[in-house]
Specification:
The protein is mostly helical and 139 residues long. 85% of the residues lie in helices and 0% in strands. Bound molecules: protoporphyrin IX containing FE (HEM).
Length: 139
């Protein structure tokens, strides 16, 4: 039963990561360049509409990642100092991803594209750190 819950929480954590980082990556490298071919007024209107549409999904994902991440943390308490240090760095980057995530779904944000690049970079680094965390306790 506990095993099933652990697997479910892991699935939810990974799925949330996919939706967040994959979604923003698509917006930054597929939607944003296409938007650039439109007139400035249309770019703003469509950009704000896309951001508004993504907003509730983003807030849900932040909630799910925090809940499942805390659950994972409790499962991995006492993994040693290297693990704790890497987890600390990961959590700082997570704060960056969450803060920037909230900025990019705001309306009238001319820096949105650049902020999305930052979010994707931090997200990819977090995924790499998480892979190392997992490697530290393969069994
Ligand atoms: C409050 C937020 C978060 C907390 C507390 C948290 C914590 C954790 C912990 C403790 C693990 C287990 C690592 C291990 O196997 O030893 C984990 C796994 C993972 N996390 Fe997070 N995390 C959070 C948010 C994020 C975010 C924002 C991302 C990606 C952008 C992310 C990506 C991953 C990935 C890819 C794994 C590996 C899953 C696995 O191998 O089972 N996490 N997380």
């Amino acid at each position: 039963m506990t095993d099933a819950l652990n697997v479910f929480m892991r699935w939810l954590h990974i799925t949330s990561v996919v939706v967040l980082i994959g979604g923003v990556l698509y917006a930054r490298f597929v939607l944003a360049p296409v938007l650039q071919s439109l007139a400035a007024q249309e770019q703003d209107t469509l950009g704000d509409a896309l951001a508004a549409r993504y907003r509730s999904l983003l807030f849900l994902i932040v909630l799910l990642l925090t809940a499942t991440g805390l659950y994972n943390m409790i499962l991995n308490i006492n993994r040693g100092s290297l693990y704790q240090s890497l987890l600390g760095i990961k959590l700082l980057l997570v704060l960056h991803v969450f803060a920037v995530g909230i900025l990019i779904v705001k309306a009238k944000n001319p820096k949105r594209a650049r902020q999305m690049t930052g979010l994707v970079i931090s997200g990819l680094v977090i995924i790499a750190i998480s892979a190392v965390l997992r490697q530290l306790h393969l069994n």
